[in-house]
Amino acid sequence: MTALALHVGPPPELRGLLPDELVGWVARAGAPAYRAEQIFRWLHGHGVESLEAMTNVPTALRDALEREHRTRPLALDTVQTAADGTRKLRFRTGDGHAIESVLIPDEDAERDKLTLCISSQVGCALDCGFCATATLGFTRHLLAGEIVEQVYRATALAGRRPTNLVFMGMGEPLHNFDNVARALTLLEHPWGATFSPRRITVSTSGLVSGIEKLGALSPAPNLAISLNATTDEVRDRIMPVNKRWPIAALLKAAGQFPLSHGRRVTFEYVLLAGVNDSDADADRLPRLLRGIPAKVNLIPWNGFEGPAYARPSAERIRTFQERVRATGMAVYIRTPRGDDIDAACGQLAARDLVTLRPWQPTTI
Ligand code: SF4
To answer: Which residues are catalytic?
Structure first.
């Protein structure tokens, strides 16, 4: 086996290699070109956990792969199952951090939909006031291989492939743009898991530069924006990212996001009693979104220890929805899923494995 060029820094992550990079490695290793496709299929089509499982790849080539790459997969640490069938998967990364993914079956079993919510960072730097992940602070970006590995481990656990992937777990995906873009390529590639970009949604708290880069991907995945306020005054307070990219800049980027036929931008709106749930908010929301192919998901706040927020009453939530709907806007109330195991939106904090620490601002 030919020796490869020396790497500066840690060796590359095997599961994060793009097909072209694997082709290049195989060529440098002096192996036939078809080995690259074989290896990629094992990694991403079958999602194997160990190199030994690559039974049609010669041992010498597997040994070289192991020597020259980081191959340590995520370890599945705990699985919790909620009363509604939602399952929260807690993983440990190779360097010991905890991250979480959530498998969410459709409420209507006949639809046979299985959504997997995945994490993109250990913790998060964005400090949204209503979100449990924010209390962890930011530790590091997940590598592309660690992002896709969540999908393959969840697939093995569920015994079937998720029908939909959403980047709505721990972290701000567009803060980790390069690894997320790489993960999208890996997940969509015809040699691998072949996810359609139409079945993948990237959710952002509003990083305008990231939205522009995401829209430039070909093909672009679906876009969701966590909006949560109708005035800059309120959004500044509950989402500090708004001070950098206020609502007008955010909605301009949303309006320019490329959408193929029938697709819409999803706007998530976490309802906080007395903060953003007034009639005036309900009336402003559709006016703000005018001209953008959009749908709105109202998310009654999922509580956790700490912030002084409350979920609005069921009546307030319904009234808010009705006022928005009266304008012709598509608006849905998202039933909290897995909230009894802290798996609902905004509740992921990998409890027990991480120590809560003060937030440190990070340049984005
Ligand atoms: S809502 Fe998203 S972006 Fe905001 S702190 Fe939580 S994980 Fe980060």
So the answer is: 100, 345
